[in-house]
Amino acid sequence: MEKSYKNQENSSKEEILISAQEYTSILNMQQRILSMLSSGEKSTHILNTLCFLAEKLLPNAVASIMIVNENGLMSVLCAPSIPKEGQEALTNLKPGPGTGSCGNAVFCNEAQFVQNTFEDKRWLDLKKVAIDFNICSCWSIPIKNEENITIGTFALSSFEHREPNHFFKKLLETAAFMINIILKKK
């Protein structure tokens, strides 16, 4: 049974269709993260938990949070399921047209949904990373501060080629919003 829920942040007021179970999954994730935040847990632990919860909702995938530094370069802030070598391969990433989903999300200031990282031009400069770590698809959304400036990204990288449905787009939006709250508290 699908229900229609309005996406209040989208200025076009398009409807996002997700099932009641999917909606409940997002609410449960929000509740867990906000509970951790209100009880004063360390931000690193909260961000790791957020990544793990998102990964549970998208099997065969990993979650990551990248941050833009004062020089405009990006590095991994949190990616508990990504090997250290994978995180290091993304250190000091300069946002631009060939720098993967996250680099493009910052460069274009909008979500990037790449279904095939091996062939998509947005992954041209990171094709070796995609192949080496078997990142088949990657969806990334900007994390914006209260001034609507992109300060980082939240991404779900999959070990299979796929496109996000309405539920996964809403999951990305929700996670990015919560990450902004967590970073403000940090």
Give a structural overview.
With 186 residues, the chain is an alpha+beta fold. It has six helices and seven strands. It has helices spanning 20-38, 43-57, 84-88, 100-108, 127-132, 166-185, and strands spanning 2-6, 15-19, 61-68, 74-78, 112-114, 137-144, 150-158. The strands form two sheets. A five-stranded antiparallel sheet has the order 4-3-7-6-5, with helices on both faces. The longest helix has 20 residues, at 166-185.
Distance between the termini: 39 Å
Q: Which percent bin holds the helix content?
A: 25-40%
Radius of gyration: 16 Å
Q: From N to C, what is the helix and strand string?
A: EEHHEEHHEHEEH
The shape is globular
Instruction: Tell me the number of strands.
Output: 7
Most strands sheet: 5 strands, antiparallel
Please write out the topology.
Blueprint: E1 2-6, E2 15-19, H1 20-38, H2 43-57, E3 61-68, E4 74-78, H3 84-88, H4 100-108, E5 112-114, H5 127-132, E6 137-144, E7 150-158, H6 166-185
Antiparallel strand pairs: 1-2, 3-4, 3-7, 5-6, 6-7
Helix pairs in contact: 1-2, 1-6, 2-6
